[in-house]
Write a structure and sequence with these properties.
heterodimer, A: two-stranded antiparallel sheet, 7 strands, B: Copper Amine Oxidase, Chain A, domain 1, Immunoglobulin-like, Aminopeptidase, 6-stranded mixed sheet, 5-stranded antiparallel sheet, 34% strand
């Protein structure tokens, strides 16, 4: 019985030595981690309304595509699902139909009619929806400085009767007001 | 006995493996403008070279990651620039330009690890921040530039507390809507000195002051021991921001400064247009008990009209006096056609969560007015009208704070559609949240509606007196 113990410890010591030798000599022989999809991933900061008012950013890992339009779509569509506050800035059923870049800093988002039809209303909620969209784009997509919102391909005066969508929204004007908490 | 031996062996192996890993893993700290307090990250040292996780690098530089397992290559896309890395190679390619990290990209701890030099010498060139590695402190720092916020001092006065933020150059700042016991000052282009960052003890009414550095701005949060009010003034000689904190309104505390150089442009306040928001098929926000914003706003407009006529003797017009839809443009055109001296658009708010209550005031953003000045006939673009709008908004907040339960959510600046075409001082008042059951019940109550109207009338009376006495826009 004692002999068996000695043999067991000797085998374990051998395994440990082998472990170090392999690890030191050739790092690449360690099995690669199962990172990423073939298309890659992207960490984005998404913005959601808070329960008590205002909006806040949250980090999420989303699939990254070959084209920036795909990345914009994935980031914006995340806003249909609730953030940590349990609140989603985009109304249920909202779909982002198209994304266009004009090459000069302006991105146009064409939403389904749900964005207006299902919006709860009120200037605070309307402003928060706009801030969340604009801030998500402004923070994660360098070079975007204006955002134009369309609904079913049409320009609309407002989402819920308050904030003008007549002109493109400047990111600098609608970037979220992150509180220092 | 044999089972015990096996367990002992496994334990020994585990200890040996852990010890080997710990030998290479050496924590480091990262400091970014978003998180100036040091945040611990995993870091490693191999053959005297410091490494960090490639995933962490991607996060810090907001880069997209593209991983090709069969080639053991990773592409980090920072903005529009692609940086290619290969496991086992010290060379990286920034688009077509090669760079030598003098140590290979490698696997370790089940992760892809890159030399810290990648962040400080290569990716540093692709972001506005300066990225440095402090070897002894093991700190990776992202700095935004020379500090221009130098010091913050709180001074207790007999009638309140003054908070002074000393600057190296004049900077604009805004007092953001917040709770009554917490005020947030945002300084665009502000860079806080290291000494300011974090939480420091306050004085008087201010319990503590927290300063955070965010990309492109500094954010100062004042925590009060109890509810109070605050005013912010930017002064230029010497450059500083002054915040006056009071438990109530106190005339000895400095008030916001307004331009007094336009006396002759100040007329009377004799004609007022009230705009009951929404109408017709556009019901606006709704309560769970089906109180509609369009009905609440019309009721408040009507009672306000009566009180204004009765108490101030002014001419009052409504943009709608029944349940009809009118476009935002038609509403502001009514005010322009009437040559109104003041335009007040009445609304009831909505939020995604029922806990939010209180009132707020919207003022059209000044920059938007300037940006189309002289090009588009639609819109006032009058800086004086904008200043007076903000001034009246402050008065209205004060008066409503006296008559309504609140809380006040302050003044919001945005491109409000109904205000963008007006040629006179104009505000959008959100009287309460229909999504909050208490507010909704109040808003439907004629007694409460009269309280709102009384607050509006008191603010207009004060506004009229201020213009008549001072000739400018200061209280």
């Amino acid at each position: 019985m004692k002999g068996a113990t000695v043999i067991m410890l000797a085998v374990l010591a051998g395994v440990a030595v082998l472990f170090f030798a392999l690890r030191r000599d050739d790092a690449a022989t360690v099995a690669p981690p199962t990172v990423g999809e073939p298309t890659g991933t992207r960490t984005v900061e998404l913005f959601f309304p808070r329960a008590g008012g205002g909006i806040a950013g949250e980090m999420r890992e989303v699939v990254a595509g070959e084209f920036v339009e795909e990345d914009v779509r994935r980031a914006i569509e995340e806003l249909v699902t609730a953030g940590e506050s349990g609140i989603a800035p985009l109304p249920p059923g909202t779909r982002l139909l198209n994304v266009y870049f004009d090459g000069e800093g302006e991105v146009t988002l064409n939403f389904s009619s749900d964005l207006r039809a299902n919006h709860p209303g009120g200037s605070d909620a309307e402003l928060a929806t706009i801030q969340c969209i604009v801030s998500t784009l402004g923070v994660n997509f360098p070079g975007v400085d204006r955002v134009r919102l369309l609904v079913e391909g049409e320009a609309v005066p407002t989402l819920a009767g308050h904030v003008s969508l007549r002109d493109a929204l400047h990111v600098r004007d609608y970037r979220e007001t992150r509180k220092a908490e | 006995m044999r089972r015990t031996d096996v367990l002992a062996g496994i334990a020994a192996l585990g200890i040996l493996a852990s010890a080997a890993l710990a030998q290479d893993r050496q924590p480091a700290w990262v400091m970014t403008p978003d998180h100036p307090a040091p945040r611990e990250i995993d870091a490693y040292r191999f053959d005297g070279v410091d490494y960090i996780d490639a995933n962490e690098v991607a996060r810090l530089f907001r880069a997209s990651k593209y991983w090709r397992a069969e080639l053991e290559k990773m592409v980090l896309k920072v903005g529009d620039t692609r940086v290619r890395l290969t496991v086992g190679s010290p060379y990286v390619f920034v688009e077509d330009q090669g760079a030598n990290l003098f140590a290979p990209v490698r696997w370790g701890d089940g992760r892809m690890l890159v030399p810290v030099r990648l962040a400080t010498d290569v990716l540093d060139e692709l972001v506005p921040e300066r990225v440095t590695w402090r070897t002894e402190a093991r700190q990776l720092r992202f700095d935004t530039g020379e500090p221009n916020l130098l010091a913050i001092e709180c001074e207790e006065r007999s009638n309140g507390t003054l908070v002074e933020v000393r600057l190296s150059q004049p900077l604009d700042a805004t007092l953001e809507p917040s709770n009554e016991d917490r005020f947030v000052v945002v300084v665009p282009d502000g860079v806080a000195s290291d000494a300011l960052l974090g939480l420091v003890r306050g004085a008087g009414l201010v319990d503590s002051v927290r300063t955070l550095q965010e990309p492109g701005r500094a954010v100062i949060t004042l925590h009060l021991g109890s509810a109070g009010s605050a005013r912010l003034v930017a002064r230029t000689t010497p450059p500083r921001l002054v915040l006056a904190i009071t438990e109530g309104v106190d005339e000895e505390i400095p008030a916001p400064e307004y331009d007094r150089g336009v006396v002759d442009q100040v007329p009377s306040v004799a004609r007022i247009v009230l705009d009951p928001g929404h109408g017709g098929a556009d019901r606006g926000a709704r309560s769970s008990s089906d109180v509609a914003e369009k009905d609440v706003t019309l009721a408040i407009a009507r009672v306000t009209r009566e009180l204004l006529r009765e108490r101030l003797g002014v001419e009052v017009e409504l943009t709608r006096d029944d349940d009809q839809f009118r476009s935002t443009q038609a509403r502001s055109e009514t005010a322009n056609r009437m040559k109104a001296d003041l335009f007040v658009s009445l609304h009831a708010d909505g939020w995604f969560h029922p806990s939010t209550s209180g009132f707020s005031i919207g003022v059209h953003r000044a920059e938007a007015e300037v940006s189309v000045a002289g090009i588009d006939a639609w819109g006032s673009h009058d800086p004086l009208a904008h200043e007076r709008s903000e001034f009246f908004a402050e008065l209205l907040l004060e008066r409503l704070s006296e008559t309504l339960p609140g809380p006040s959510h302050g003044v919001k600046l945005a491109d409000f559609a109904v205000l963008e075409g007006t040629t006179m001082p104009s505000v959008l008042l959100e009287c309460g949240f229909l999504t909050n059951s208490t507010d909704a019940s109040n808003l439907a109550d004629p007694g409460f509606q009269k309280k709102i109207a009384e607050g509006i009338v008191a603010a207009i009376a004060e506004y009229r007196n201020a213009l008549a006495e001072g000739g400018g826009t200061a209280p």
